[in-house]
Amino acid sequence: MVQYTARRVAQAIAVLWAAYTVTFVVLYALPSDPVSILLNQAGGTGRPSADQVAKIQAAYGFDDPIVVQYWHHLVDAFQLDFGQSVSRGQSVTSLLAENLPPTIALTAVALVLTTLIGGGLAFLATYVGWRPLRSFLHRLPAVGVSFPTFWVGLLLIQLFSFSLGWFPATGSGGVSSLVLPALTMSLPTSGILAQVLIRGLDDTLDQAHIATARAKGLSRLTIHTKHALKNASLPALTILGVLVGATVTNAVVAETVFSRLGIGRLAQQAVLAQDIPLVQGIVVLAAGVFVVVNLVVDLIYPLLDPRVLQPTSSRSLAPLEVAA
Amino acid sequence: MALTFTPAPVVATPTDHPVLEIDDLSVGFGPKGRERRVVENLTLSVRPGQVVALVGESGSGKSTTAHAALGLLPAGGRIVGGRITLGGHDVTHADDKAFRHHRGPVVGLVPQDPMVALNPTMRVGEQVAEAVRRRGVPKRSVEVEVVEVLERAGVDNPVVKARQYPHELSGGQRQRVLIAIALAGKPKLLVADEPTSALDATVQRRILDHLDRLVADNGTSLLLITHDLGVAVDRADHLVVMSQGRIVEQGKPAQIAESPQHEYTQRLLDAAPGLGRVRRPAPVPPVDDVVLRFDGVSKEFTSRSGLGSRSRARVLDDVTLDVHRGRTLALVGESGSGKTTALRIAMGLERPTSGRVLFDGVDVASSDRRSLRALRRRFQFVHQNPFAALDPKFSVRDLVAEPLESFRIGDRASRTTTVSKLLDQVALPASYLGRRPAELSGGQRQRVAIARALALEPELLLLDEPVSALDVSVQAQILDLLVDLQSELGLTYVLVSHDLAVVAEVSHQLAVLDGGRIVESGPTQQVFDHPEHALTRALLAAVPGLSLKEAGA
Amino acid sequence: MTLADAELVRPITPAPPTADRDETSSRTRQTAHALLRRPGFLIAVAYVVLVILSAIAPRLFASGDPTQTEPKDKFLAPSLHHLFGTDELGRDLFTRMVHGSALSVEATAISVGLAVVAGLTIGVVSGYAGGWADSLLMRFVDVLLAIPALLLALAIVTALGFGTVNVAIAVGVGLTPGFARVTRAEVLRVKTLPYVEAARSSGAGPLRVLRRHILPNSWGPVAVLAVLDFGTAILAVSSLSFLGFGAPPPEAEWGSLVAAGRTYLVTSPWLTLLPGLAVGAAVYALNHIGKTFEELQRWH
């Protein structure tokens, strides 16, 4: 177990490092001229003077070879230093720290909603017996993933703020301002979760051990909750990382639509301002969240699914000799 | 209990009143009015303490009948006529809620495949406990009863097993757990749906013996669904033979076996290995040279577990064998004995850890790709499962012609001629050239696979359980074909099988494998007459239908 | 028993009822029939075809000028004359939507094209070659997957600059890893099937096995994903364009149209809601088509 944990942690760190490298390559090595992008930002709209160029080059180390630049950046990043934001003149780390709390709150609420909506829908879609309703519920998740997040947000504003006046349309104050953006973020991810769960439940309910359970005389509800739901949600756990990633992504749109403070809005503004250090900081942060979530899932999974931990189960030899 | 459904008035059933009565039952699949009937006008009853066997090949409707009796018809299936009475209650059109009250106390199911019939994420004891609790057993005695019923089902070390997960148990033990689950409700009737066809022969026999004993001891009735006429004849008080949804014959097993009334039963009896007409291996050619030699072959697999530790498994251990030209060597063993691995090593699909496999003096294992390719023209492989061994996108013509194309033999026209000739050899009409695998039956697919293997005119065929996926009567046809081809073309076979009855009829030499070692080998007849190793004797004893054969002899 | 007995060829099992039909075409015909019996599928296909047509030949659907302003007709609600209403400058929204398809569909096609080519290559090489090439490529894919697709796209847009093509490339890169994964999984699955082993052991070379057996049998799920990815790409492209990274103002894309209408959400909700609805319908249609293909494959 210790060995397993150590290997997974090492893998996670390696992936995070590689992700950092990818963002570095994309942001610093890909543009033909990062200096002018940065200079555009620093204010001057006119032709930059040689002096300005030299200053930027020195400040960002662009006169060093790219590998040396990479090394310096990596060492800094290791100390959680992603440099100075160009558009805001503040350190990237402090900007991230300032904007993180509202986004965490929003993402947390959105994930809870995702679980409730997606899980509930999947349960109903597979439990309901009446065929027309059943097939309607089976199709519903596809609607959730089909409509653009920004549009869903605007629709919710139109409905619940302007028409009904239940929730504020914009702003980041109080719990009530969380509801609409969180709902906006969770509808697409609920769709993803519901699709995965519905497929898992339908597959599980087709399996032979469900017939065994029915033959015992257990009720449908017992079978659905005790036998099917658990087995079907275990595989669904592995997409938790994807769900969190998608939720964070949706925060970019939702925070922009609802004019909220947060990492997402910061990302939109950073890209609009082509603020390379800030964009990198945000992308690496998101990758870090994804990596950590997946690490946690990987470490918890064996505790939940008894089949994974088996050292030399008969399964590992099964492909060699198919039982006749 | 009976609050939510309207049962027929509970009759004080006299002891000989049937537990299950099926009267003129028809079951259909598909949309109303246009349904495909899978069971038609079936009438059958099971009295208390009686063992009734329902025998038929795949598609005969035997499993559908069993599922109808349990109210577990798969989606799309409906009872379209007749009635089912279970323990005195009419359950023909009972909904799931109403049926639930009969499952457990009246009828219990022993399902088909123990490897998948238990919930993999729930401890064994809890799965039994669910069935125990259905009887309203008080909480504190549940655990005791679980252990007790596991013990009665023949699970060894029940206290420990109850705390384990299904994947930690062997197939036989899992089947016993399933029997325990069925028994836990104290049912009047057990329905066993091919309870042992996924298990090894020796395990199969022990499980069936145990079921027999349970039924005799408790006065429970048993409805045994099986494809194996031998099993049915050995075990049943009453035998029902089904074909294409209808009962073709029923009566006392001994009587049916001795003088079958229906032509289909006759065919089944003929085909049943160990029961029917005795097939003889092809005559042996006068010359005697060794085509293939296993020389001290061992194979180890290292597998990485989920925790990162490596474990080694020795699958073959110092196997030495000679295969003589024009003869059949049979490799027999239970699952995990290494027989398939031996075949794959001979084919060059796996490399041995040590030892050599010599084909006509050339070491297969150490050959490079090119010389192995040249060798492959001379020996070919026929896969176990004809349903997976043919590319679904290919036509029969392309499938059989593929080896010719790979070796660039002939042009398109001449290949088609060759393919037609090959189809003729395996007794398939030339009109099948354009068909795809999905349009063929299992037996026809295996014929195509054999034709493909013959395309390069090989000397040696490696046959991996060539008939185990097929119905009995089709099995017989394929075995006949193999014997014919051998005598016609002078082929050499290495035949891997778990089924001694199959082996007896087609092989000249026999080697019994256990845990990767050869425990016994010699001429087939000799091994059969004087088995020396305990496993060989156990395997022989496990061949179903022997009782009948002895009675008839 | 003699040899003559053994040579007795038994009648083969009766042929299945499909025997007399023209076998080669019957499968395709069956599939076609199954599709035609699904009105939902037909509607979805029709809608997608309309959207593509509107991108190729917008004048077929809206003959007007998408940039022509008509100050007296501003903020008109949807009517027969102006299907989607008019915007703050009196431009006909439906005409702008139809003309905007060109850019949006183009961007979608570029990104899916990129993902398909790159993803297929990585997936096939990785799955078929195995060994170190597989480990290397898959580690790379894992890393790309660790960065949420839209954020990776944001980084690429930051580096490449704004505009339709850059957005399309960014989205395409984001779609590639998923595509590579599915392709590899399919190739791996088919690679170990008995019939591939049978072909190999009857002497077929690796390229022949790949071309004739593995690719034809593994493209199904990959094709389904490609259809679904068209939907994903539409969403991603329009999101990026909504956030302001697409084509600059006088040009209109689906996303930027919604963004532009947003200011007037209170008074003229149709300016945001109708274009978004049209986009969502396109994605839903693609989803439906993909799912239908998937179901058909499961039956066969």
TrEMBL record, chain A:
Entry GO CC: plasma membrane
TM spans (from-to): 12-30, 104-130, 142-166, 178-198, 236-258, 278-301
Major place of residence: membrane
Leader sequence residues: none
CDD domains (alphabetical): TM_PBP2
Family matches, as PROSITE patterns: ABC_TM1
Subcellular location: Cell membrane
One GO BP annotation of this record: transmembrane transport
Highest taxon above the source species: Bacteria
Topological relation to the membrane, as annotated: Multi-pass membrane protein
Keyword annotations: Cell membrane, Membrane, Transmembrane, Transmembrane helix, Transport
InterPro entries in UniProt: BPD_transp_1_N, MetI-like, MetI-like_sf
SUPFAM superfamilies linked to this entry: MetI-like (SSF161098)
ABC transmembrane type-1 domain mapped to chain residues: 100-301
PANTHER family: DIPEPTIDE TRANSPORT SYSTEM PERMEASE PROTEIN DPPB-RELATED (PTHR43163:SF6)
Family as reported in the entry's similarity comment: Belongs to the binding-protein-dependent transport system permease family.
Protein name (record): ABC transporter permease
Automatic annotation (TrEMBL), chain B:
Domain (ABC transporter) ranges: 20-269, 292-540
Keyword Nucleotide-binding part of the UniProt annotation: yes
Stored InterPro entries: AAA+_ATPase, ABC_transp_ATP-bind, ABC_transporter-like_ATP-bd, ABC_transporter-like_CS, Oligopep_ABC_C, P-loop_NTPase
GO biological process, one term: transmembrane transport
Molecular functions per Gene Ontology: ATP binding; ATP hydrolysis activity
One Pfam family from the record: ABC_tran
PROSITE patterns named in the record: ABC_TRANSPORTER_1, ABC_TRANSPORTER_2
Domain of life: Bacteria
Presence of keyword Chloroplast: no
UniProt entry keywords in alphabetical sequence: ATP-binding, Nucleotide-binding, Transport
PANTHER family: D,D-DIPEPTIDE TRANSPORT ATP-BINDING PROTEIN DDPF-RELATED, TRANSPORT ATP-BINDING PROTEIN
Family from the record: Belongs to the ABC transporter superfamily.
Protein name (Swiss-Prot/TrEMBL): ABC transporter ATP-binding protein
From TrEMBL, chain C:
Superkingdom: Bacteria
Pfam hit, one: BPD_transp_1
Location within or outside the cell: Cell membrane
Start and end residues of each ABC transmembrane type-1 domain: 101-290
PROSITE patterns: ABC_TM1 (PS50928)
Protein name: ABC transporter permease
High-level lineage: Bacteria, Bacillati, Actinomycetota, Actinomycetes, Propionibacteriales
GO cellular component annotations of the record: plasma membrane
InterPro entries membership: BP-dependent_transpt_permease, MetI-like, MetI-like_sf
Record bears the keyword Cell membrane: yes
